[in-house]
Automatic annotation (TrEMBL):
Residues 142-282 form the SIS domain. InterPro entries: Homeodomain-like_sf, HTH_RpiR, RpiR-like, RpiR-like_SIS, SIS_dom, SIS_dom_sf, WH-like_DNA-bd_sf. The keyword DNA-binding applies. Transmembrane segments: none annotated. Keywords: DNA-binding, Transcription, Transcription regulation. Coiled coil: none annotated. SUPFAM superfamilies: Homeodomain-like (SSF46689), SIS domain (SSF53697). This is HTH-type transcriptional regulator.
Length: 300
C-alpha cells in the first residue's frame, strides 16, 4: 500500500459524508454514456489514472482536465457522492481492494466450463455492485409510500415484465392489493386513471424505455406516488420518480439486460418485499399462512 493510499484510507470515518462508496469505478463506467463532454473528460482522466487523482486537490484536477472546480464537484454529486474528498476515499478503496470478478463477455470459442464461470461471476458481481448502490433510506421511503397506498400498480415491459409479475405475486402473498401491468397500452390507460392513493412501482433497466417512462409520467401527473427500479446513472424515467431504487448491472454483448440485470432486480424486489412484510409483521405472517394453505390445495 502506498503512502498516498494509506493517507486517504485513514480518512475513513472522519465524516459520515465522506464514507467510502463501493465500486466507484463501476459507477463511473455505468454513468459514462449519459455524461456531458466535460464530465466525460473528467471520467476519462480518473479511469486512466485513479492513483494520481487520489493525491490531487480539486483545484489540481480541474486544472489538469480543463474543467471548472464546479464541474468536478457536480461530477462527484452526479455519482451520488458528497464531493471530491469522498471520490478520493472511494478510489482508494477501489485501488486497494480491486473488483473480485471482471465482467467478461462470452466468446464464440468458450467451452461450457468457461460459460458457467463467466455467467455466474457476472451475476455475483451484479449483486455486489447493486448492494453498494442501493440506499437503505430509499427502501424505507418506498415502503412508506406503498404502505400508505390503497393499492399498488407495477409496470414492466420486455425483460422487466417477468420481474413485475414476480413482484405482483410476492405482494399478494403478504396481503397487499397489487396488480402487474405489462402491456404498454393498458399501462398508459391504467396510469392515467391512478389517483393520489395509488403507489406505482416501475421496473426498467435502462430507464429509457418509452412505454414505461410515459406510463410513469402519466401516473405521476395523475397524483400517484412513484417508485422506480432502474440501473445506476442518469435516465429519463428518474424525472418522474418520487423514490429511485438503483441496481448496478454491467451488460455485455451476449449478457444483455435480460440476464444480469434481472438477478439484481429480483434481489432488490426481495429486499423491498421483506421490508414491507416486516413493517406489518403480524398481518404479513397471517396472510402468508393463509395463502400457503390455499396453495397447498394445488399440491398432491
Amino acid at each position: 500500500m502506498t503512502e498516498t493510499t494509506e493517507t486517504v484510507m485513514k480518512g475513513r470515518g472522519r465524516n459520515q459524508d465522506q464514507a467510502l462508496v463501493e465500486n466507484i469505478i463501476a459507477r463511473i463506467r455505468l454513468s459514462y454514456k449519459t455524461m456531458g463532454p466535460m464530465s466525460k473528460t473528467i471520467a476519462n482522466f480518473i479511469l486512466a489514472q485513479p492513483q494520481r487523482v487520489m493525491a490531487m486537490s480539486v483545484t489540481e484536477l480541474s486544472e489538469t482536465t480543463g474543467a471548472s472546480q464546479g464541474s468536478v464537484v457536480n461530477f462527484c454529486q452526479n455519482l451520488g457522492l458528497s464531493g471530491f474528498q469522498q471520490l478520493k476515499l472511494s478510489l482508494a478503496q477501489a485501488v486497494v481492494q480491486p473488483v473480485q470478478y471482471i465482467h467478461e463477455d462470452l466468446e464464440r470459442s468458450d467451452d461450457i466450463e468457461t460459460v458457467c464461470r463467466k455467467v455466474f461471476h457476472g451475476g455475483i458481481q451484479a449483486l455486489r455492485d447493486s448492494k453498494s448502490a442501493l440506499e437503505p433510506k430509499s427502501i424505507a421511503a418506498a415502503v412508506q409510500l406503498m404502505r400508505s397506498a390503497k393499492r399498488i400498480e407495477i409496470y414492466g415491459i420486455g425483460s422487466s415484465a417477468p420481474i413485475a409479475e414476480d413482484a405482483h405475486y410476492r405482494m399478494l402473498r403478504i396481503g397487499l392489493d397489487a396488480k402487474a401491468v405489462t402491456d404498454s397500452h393498458v399501462q398508459a390507460i391504467s396510469a392515467s386513471r391512478t389517483t393520489p392513493d395509488v403507489a406505482v412501482l416501475t421496473i426498467s433497466h435502462t430507464g429509457s424505455t418509452r412505454e414505461t417512462v410515459v406510463a410513469t409520467q402519466l401516473a405521476k401527473e395523475a397524483g400517484a406516488k412513484t417508485v422506480v427500479l432502474t440501473n445506476f446513472g442518469r435516465s429519463p424515467i428518474q424525472a418522474f420518480a418520487d423514490v429511485t431504487l438503483f441496481t448496478m448491472a454491467c451488460e455485455t454483448l451476449f449478457r444483455t439486460e435480460a440476464m444480469t440485470s434481472r438477478i439484481a432486480q429480483l434481489c432488490v424486489i426481495d429486499t423491498l418485499i421483506a421490508a414491507l412484510a416486516l413493517a406489518d409483521y403480524e398481518r404479513s405472517i397471517q396472510t402468508l399462512r393463509e395463502t400457503f394453505d390455499v396453495l397447498s390445495l394445488k399440491r398432491f
